[in-house]
Amino acid sequence: MLCNSVRHRSLLSISRLQTTPTRLYTAPSAPRRSNTLLSISLFSLGCTSAYVLGSLYPPTLITYLAPRSAPPPLHPSDPRAGPYIEALEDSLQSLPLLSQARSAPDAAEWYETRPYTHIPEERRVNSLTVGALNGPGKLALRPLVRARRDESEAMVFLHLGRGVCGHEGLVHGGLLATILDEGLGRVAIQNLPEKVGVTGNLNINYRAPTQADQFVVIKAKIGTVSGRKAAVSGRIEDMNGKVLVEATATFIQPRYATLLNKNAMKQSMGHPNDETAGRPVVEGELYPTQGKDEREA
């Protein structure tokens, strides 16, 4: 009996040893202070980098909410005005979209012209787009028009400066309506019997903010033509093809159109036989009201 009791206690002790979990030695955890400092440093570096990049290249939305102020447009008599306009003209002639249009398979079906080139000075000064709105920082260049020879559609290339803004950095909606009225009107009027017309209505939908100081293109197409009325549609796009404004319009030929001077209208719109078509602006044409010697004085 004694032997059995001793044996029982031994087996019980062995069983307890096997079922009791073994406690392993765990080294104390390493200090986390260095990791915390590293995280703070990386966060600070990231914030600083984001601030610097945001200042140099602000997102479009930020420019709308906190626009940057810009210097006023140059006065036409400023010595820097001539070189500024010439640089813009070089940029216009180098636009990829214009180059593609000139080299397209159907390029022979189109012609180029520069409206307002032959307008006398006494009429030019009282014109809105080529008079009051002409100059550095505004509508600095005469529009370059590429139109189909059948006058069914046209492309009008323009540069919009920072002096025609509503909200800082964004072109005024009224200015966009003005250039659409002229761009669509040119196509419509060319399809009217007497090549003379006035705006009957103009319906505009603004699709995206139009940033200032950029080239845009007006694309216009003729719709229906019925007697003295012509319907036309079009849009303004940036150089990446983004639609900024869409519009439809109706132009009406006045009943007294036969009494009007049609040559004046042709001078305003340009025509296929314009010898200045597609040619870059030369210095004497930048500001017809001033000669070269006057600007240099």
From TrEMBL:
Pfam families: 4HBT. Coiled coil: none annotated. InterPro entries: HotDog_dom_sf, PTE-AB_protein, Thioestr_dom. Keywords: Isomerase. Residues 169-243 form the Thioesterase domain. Residues 267-297 are annotated as: Disordered. GO terms for molecular function: isomerase activity. PANTHER family: UPF0644 PROTEIN PB2B4.06 (PTHR47260:SF1). This is Thioesterase/thiol ester dehydrase-isomerase. It comes from Neolentinus lepideus HHB14362 ss-1.
